[in-house]
Amino acid sequence: MITIREAREALKLYFGYEQFRPMQEQIIADVLQRKDVVVLMPTGGGKSVCFQVPAVVMPGVCVVVSPLIALMKDQVEALLVNGIQAAYINSSQSAEQQYTIENECLAGKLKLLYVSPEKLLSSGFMSFLKRLNVSLFAVDEAHCISAWGHDFRPEYTQLKALKQQFPSVPVIALTATADKLTQKDIQEQLHLHNPNVFTASFDRPNINLMVKPGRDRFNRITDFLERRHKQPGIIYCLSRKATESLAQKLKSSGYSATYYHAGMSPNLRAKAQDDFLKDNVQIVCATIAFGMGIDKSNVRWVIHYNLPKNIEGYYQEIGRAGRDGAKSDALLFYSFADVMNMRNMLQDNQGKETQTELQLVKLERMQQFAEAAACRRRILLQYFGETMTNDCGNCDICRNPPTRFDGTLIAQKALSAIARTNEQVNLGLLVDVLRGARTSQVMQAGFDRVKTYGAGRDINTLDWHRYLHQLLNEGYMEMAYDQGYTLKLTEQSKQVLFEGRKVQLVKFDEIKQEESAVKARPKRELIKDALFESLRTLRKSLADEYGVPPYVIFTDTTLQEMAAERPTNKISMLAISGVGAQKFDRYGDTFISKIIDFINEEQAKGNKIKGATHLATLELLQSGLSIDEIAKLRNLNPVTVFSHLATLYEQGYPVKINAYVNKAEYSIISKAIEKLGPDAKLKDLFECLHEKYEYYKIRLSLSIYKKEHNL
Ligand code: ADP
Ligand code: MG
Question: Each residue of 43-57: pLDDT tens digit?
Answer without folding.
Answer: 889 999 999 999 999
